[in-house]
Write a structure and sequence with these properties.
49% helix, elongated, 224 residues, three-stranded antiparallel β-sheet, Arc Repressor Mutant, subunit A, Jelly Rolls
Length: 224
Amino acid sequence: MIDSIEQQQRLIDGFPLLMEASAQFRQTFFRSATLVQIPAGHTIASEGSECGQLAVVFSGRVRVYKLAESGREITLYRINSGDSCVLTASCIMSDTPFPAIAETETDVEALVIPSRQASEWVGDSTPWRTFIFGLISRRLADVIALLENVAFHRMDERIAAYLIAIASQGLVVNITHHEIASDLGTTREVVSRILKEFEGKGLVAGARGKLTIIDLPGLQSYCH
């Protein structure tokens, strides 16, 4: 339960779905939800685990990924502020186990809602239903794009596109070859080989745990 008026107002201001909801739904929401702090590096859900609750992220970032028997990983999507896990929502509504791994990449503040309540609200609350269906729509598009990249694009094209995407954070990015490999579902050795090729062409410069993007148009030429 969240009974602090100040906390309630902070959450209303931070979540569009609460801003749009009726006062009655807000009261029900705050009676059911619990505000929790989760440290970075914590596994929220493991593959095969029961989905007994749904977390809505207020601040921080969560990575959802698949892990193969070989140890290789591939990122399915990330959950950021104001978002939730569509796989968890799907598991709650279908009463099936969680099919991936969810892990906090940063410290996370989240609202935790019991699965029964989250499921009932889909039928009872228009703002909540819109929120859940919006999750499904966005994540379906993300997963289709991921499958398309894996199936139809070479790894050098995928790495170039990945670097272009993270360049929005700045041209100098703190990231390791292992992190890139985990996001793209390949091995660190493959990433290292391709980045070395990119360095040879003057597209990027690498240092330990850091990557500098030098020639953005050159990387973009791989994506056509």
